[in-house]
Specification:
The complex is a heterodimer of chains A (171) and B (784).
Chain A (H helix, E strand, L loop, with lengths): L1 E6 L2 E6 L6 H8 L18 E4 L2 E4 L12 E3 L12 H8 L9 H14 L5 H7 L11 H32 L1
Parallel strand pairs in A: 1-5
Antiparallel strand pairs in A: 1-2, 3-4, 3-5
Helix pairs in contact in A: 2-5, 3-5
Chain B lengths: L1 H5 L13 H5 L15 E7 L5 E7 L1 H4 L4 E6 H6 L4 E3 L5 E3 L5 E2 L5 E7 L2 H8 L3 E6 L6 H4 L18 E8 L1 H10 L2 E12 L8 E6 L6 E5 L4 H12 L6 E4 L15 H13 L3 E4 L2 H7 L3 E12 L5 E11 L28 E9 L16 H19 L3 H8 L8 E2 L5 E2 L4 H12 L1 H13 L3 E10 L11 E2 L2 E2 L2 E7 L5 E5 L8 H13 L6 E5 L16 H28 L6 E4 L2 E4 L2 E7 H10 L10 E6 L8 E10 L6 E11 L6 H20 L4 E2 L5 E2 L18 E4 L17 H18 L13 H10 L5
Parallel strand pairs in B: 1-14, 12-13, 16-17, 24-25, 31-34
Antiparallel strand pairs in B: 1-7, 2-6, 2-8, 3-7, 4-5, 9-17, 10-15, 11-12, 11-14, 15-16, 18-19, 20-30, 21-22, 23-24, 23-29, 26-27, 27-28, 30-31, 32-33
The chains are: A alpha+beta (171), B alpha+beta (784).
């Protein structure tokens, strides 16, 4: 069956058996291997991608079901070589060790901040509770997402600050 | 200022990790991400039965299915003398079953096809006729008269007993018990659990028919040892075997052994002449690869009436599964369990252990643990808390009274260990202060008066990590040294290669920092490579918290070798005598004239362009480090829990963890490791369980049944530290990755036991689930 979908902003298509999982389509057909497979039972979240902005475990979706949808994977997080605030947060706060859960965690974090720009610790823990990390114990992942929230805040506040600075300079 | 920038990344600095970039971008190179030209996929057919005779394997339908290239059976493997392979504990293990299956999930046949979907379709079309036999699922059953004989393949094996092993002194222990005023007994089962790294195990075998070279990409924590084992198993010349461990998505011991899938994929690639990929799914990982623990332990602690410990006696029955495949040093049948006297000055001890075959998966690995240290630490720390409760003493006081004192180091333990350094009272005091123990104790009493169920658990663990010394510690005879090769290029940039293999521990950063410390080359300028046996120097790999103690030491030593060569070059460049030069901050300068200096970068350039007459060119070296002793990290963990009387649910209110792992190279990475270990310890204490029904069906065969902690359950951790350097490690470091998993389960369970002590409860085996706590409270008279 033909699958046509948007992945990280680009139109992609392929011809697959109806039973092919979205995660396999992304990894095998599109060679986007940043989306990982950890459990096959939608328990671990390593395969999390965003479908139209919502985190979804791509081992639980058939590729054909994603036709016409817009998919975001870890490969699409950095813009023009610049890491996204969530990626920066994970680096700065040591939010990753082996890195296997990291793409899924970062995509969940990205979706959370879109919906809730200033999440509490509990908000973050609840949001990532469908994703298992075996290395970090989650504390630094929570910090990483908070770090990203603060960065997004600062970048939105920055233009106003520079106005204020200009005004102050004018006086 | 410039000097400071240049020295960025010395020991003690929490620099950000050098390896992060590729993982953040989804560009990690894990095994399943790799695709070789012409690559085929392999799927393994596994036994649905725990114990059965294999009457026939019919592959006709499967062989004719679309995309199928080959179906591999035990019979085919036997023709190539590969139906069986040696284990890491001098036993044999079936690669593909020829006579019987001995555990649920055992490898029976394999299909190699153009795609994984096709391979799995055909695998499901293989028809196996089994004659089901009774299953043995515990050591207790294994030793019963008339129990089914599991290993009838072994000539002299008349029962299911594998080994008997002892440590310590039976006579002096017996005498001490005869005089004891108090004996406290704890019988506890440390259940089977599984390391469950998020990435499962797998390999891509690529045997080149033209050259005979076998390149095997493998999720291996110990690629060099695997290469040697492969050479011995397959008969291939070792120079024609190249093992490459790419990025590894967590290991925790699960990726140490050789698994049948690796051997079958390699044989298939050899026979077919194309690369063959095999990657486990999660169920295959949980039911067939290296489990952990499964120790039934009985400990007796003899004390005088004042609580002074006199002797320790332990017997354990080990459930080793169908093949004795524990990954452990060859001298020790129950790993390093005889560290069981822990942090206490116990004059004499006697340990006995018996191992048994059962119809369960083989491969007792150390799940974030140094060869069974976790079981030992759990037993002694649980026993000490129970002793305190029975004696009516505070559990802190009893520990303080019996700690090995700082002036007793190096301490010779009753079971033969020589502890290198420690200050146990200090770690305890730091933990108590951080916790506010005295106040909390009063608070616990006040809450109990109000009818609340709450308690504080303490564990003061001592670990033994960093194997060897090679004379005492070996894997299949391979001495447990490790290695580092350092090449400094003409421009002053460096390449460091080691015999270890990171699985997330941050080696690319930590080991670069050792070079920075010793040679003054900024960490950013040091590339660290591991895992390719064709390029890295031989080493025994990463497990048992041995990378920093052993390969870290090797790195320091090779850097020092190059520095001494650098001194000669600097003397030549500065026209000074070698003994007149001082080393500081990455440069040699002439004593008294700090401006007359040559930096390591200038020296490196000269090593290739302007060396003294007669000197060998270049600035490269290798060091194989065989540690003189193990290292002994320690710490005190304290946990506060609240128990819901109505449901039995345990809530962890606080976790204070004070670790002493000697000198910390990158504190950020060390703390990250501690967080992770405390979380895995939490999972083991409360959630993780691999168990079996009477027929030997594995319960816990997927992540819906085998429960791992998520961010929602996992407690917040409050860390503290003391630093007692190892006297024999060149940097004073001890290793830390496993301490929190070794130490914390007892702290969590002790907290529950403290909470339940008013109800007469003395033990609940892990995982401490709500139903067990609820039942214990009911048995203790709670009706609310």
């Amino acid at each position: 069956m033909k699958v046509s979908l948007k992945v990280n902003g680009a139109e992609r298509s392929g011809d697959v058996e109806p039973r092919v999982l979205l995660v396999d389509f992304l990894r095998t057909n599109l060679r986007l291997t940043g989306t990982h497979i950890g459990c096959d039972t939608s328990s671990c979240g390593a395969c999390t991608v965003l479908i139209d902005g919502e985190p979804v475990k791509s081992c639980t979706v058939l590729a054909v079901q994603a036709t016409g949808r817009s998919i975001s994977t870890v490969e699409g997080l950095a813009q023009g070589g610049n890491l996204s605030p969530v990626q920066v947060g994970f680096h700065e706060e040591h939010g990753l060790q082996c890195g296997f859960c990291t793409p899924g965690m970062m995509l969940v974090g990205t979706a959370l901040l879109e919906r809730n720009p200033n999440p509490s610790e509990d908000d973050i823990r609840w949001a990532i509770s469908g994703n298992i990390c075996r290395c970090t114990g989650y504390m630094n992942i929570v910090k990483a997402i908070k770090h990203a929230a603060a960065m997004r805040d600062a970048s939105q506040a920055a233009p106003q600050e520079s106005h204020a600075a200009a005004a102050a300079g004018g006086e | 200022m410039a000097q400071q920038t240049q020295m960025h990344g010395r020991i003690g600095e929490s620099i950000k990790r050098k390896e992060d970039g590729r993982f953040l971008r989804g560009k990690g190179n894990y095994l399943d991400d790799m695709e070789l030209p012409g690559m085929l996929h392999m799927a393994i057919l596994r036994s649905p039965h725990a114990h059965a005779r294999v009457k026939s394997v019919d592959t006709a339908t499967a062989s004719a299915m679309p995309g199928v290239i080959a179906v591999v059976t035990g019979e085919l493997m036997a023709q190539h003398k590969l139906a069986w392979m040696p284990t890491l504990s001098y036993d044999t293990q079936a690669v593909l079953a020829t006579d019987k299956v001995r555990f649920q999930g055992q490898e029976v046949a394999a299909v190699v096809a153009e795609s994984l979907y096709q391979a799995e379709d055909a695998r499901d079309a293989i028809v196996v006729d089994y004659d089901v036999l009774p299953a043995v699922t515990s050591p207790q059953q294994a030793k019963e008269e008339g129990a089914a004989l599991i290993r009838d393949d072994k000539e002299n094996q008349k029962d299911n007993h594998i080994y008997h092993w002892e440590a310590g002194d039976q006579d002096t222990t017996k005498a001490a018990f005869a005089k004891a005023e108090k004996v406290v007994r704890l019988h506890t089962f440390y259940p089977r659990c599984h390391p469950a790294p998020l990435e499962t195990c797998g390999c891509i075998a690529d045997v080149n028919g033209a050259t005979g070279k076998a390149t095997i990409y493998m999720t291996s924590q110990a690629p060099h040892a695997i290469r040697t084992v492969f050479a011995l198993v397959t008969g291939l010349p070792e120079q024609n075997i190249r093992i490459i461990s790419p990025d590894i998505g967590g290991g925790f011991g699960n990726k140490v052994p050789v698994y049948p899938g690796y051997v079958v994929a390699t044989a298939a690639s050899l026979l077919i002449g194309r690369p063959v990929k095999w990657v486990e799914d999660r169920t295959e990982n949980l039911i067939s690869t290296g489990y952990a623990r499964d120790f039934h332990m009985t400990g007796d602690l003899a004390l005088d009436k004042n609580g002074k410990m006199l002797a320790l006696r332990v017997h354990l029955d080990s459930d080793n599964g169908a093949f004795f495949a524990d990954a452990q040093p060859s001298k020790f049948k129950a790993g390093l369990f005889h560290i069981v006297t822990g942090s206490y000055d116990i004059p004499t001890a006697h340990i006995t252990a018996d191992g048994y075959y059962t119809n369960k998966a083989p491969g007792g690995v150390a799940y974030r643990c140094s060869f069974r240290v976790t079981e030992a630490s759990y037993l002694i720390e649980r026993l000490v808390t129970n002793a305190a409760i029975e004696l009516g003493m505070d559990q802190v006081e009893l520990r303080m009274k019996n700690f090995i004192q700082p002036e007793q180091f190096p301490y010779h333990s009753a079971t033969g260990w020589v502890y290198d350094s420690g200050d146990y009272p200090r770690a305890m005091n730091v933990a108590l202060e951080q916790l506010g123990y005295a106040e909390l104790r009063k608070d616990v009493e006040a809450r109990r008066k109000k009818g609340e169920v709450t308690g504080i658990g303490i564990a003061s663990f001592t670990e033994v990590v960093g194997a060897g010394h090679g004379a005492d510690f070996d894997i299949l005879g391979l001495r447990m040294f490790d290695s580092a090769e350092l090449r400094v290029h003409p421009t002053g940039k460096a390449l460091l290669r080691m015999g270890t293999k990171s699985q997330g521990q941050g080696h690319e950063t930590t080991f670069a920092q050792i070079v920075t410390e010793e040679l003054g080359i900024p960490a950013a300028d040091v590339a660290v490579e591991e895992g390719d046996t064709d390029t890295a120097p031989y080493g025994l790999g990463t497990y048992a918290s041995r990378s920093t103690p052993v390969a870290g030491a090797a790195t320091a030593m090779v850097a020092r070798k190059l520095r001494e060569k650098g001194r000669k070059i600097a003397a030549h460049l500065l026209e000074a005598a070698e003994e007149d030069l001082e080393w500081e901050n990455g440069r040699f300068y002439v004593k008294g004239s700090p401006d007359k200096a040559k930096t390591i970068q200038e020296i490196a350039f000269a090593a290739y362009t302007n060396i003294p007459e007669g000197m060998e060119a270049g600035l490269e070296g290798v060091h194989y480090y065989d540690p003189p002793n193990m290292t002994y990290p320690f710490g005190t963990y304290a946990v506060v829990v609240d128990v819901d009387k109505g449901t039995g649910q345990v809530k962890v209110r606080r976790v204070v963890a004070v670790d002493d792992c000697g000198v910390r190279i990158n504190p950020m990475i060390v703390e990250g490791q501690i967080h992770g270990g405390l979380t895995e310890g939490f999972g083991i204490a409360f959630m993780e369980l691999i168990t079996f029904d009477a027929e030997g069906n594995c319960i816990g065969s997927n992540f819906m049944d085998y429960l791992l902690p998520t961010a929602w359950e996992t407690p917040r951790f409050e860390l503290g530290e003391t630093v007692t350097p190892s006297p024999h490690h060149p940097l004073g470091a001890k290793g830390v990755g496993e301490s929190p998993t070794v130490g914390s389960p007892a702290a969590y369970v002790n907290a529950v036991m403290d909470a339940l002590s008013p109800y007469g409860v003395t033990n609940i085996d892990m995982p401490v689930t709500s139903d067990k706590v609820w039942a214990a409270l009911r048995a203790g008279g709670v009706t609310e």
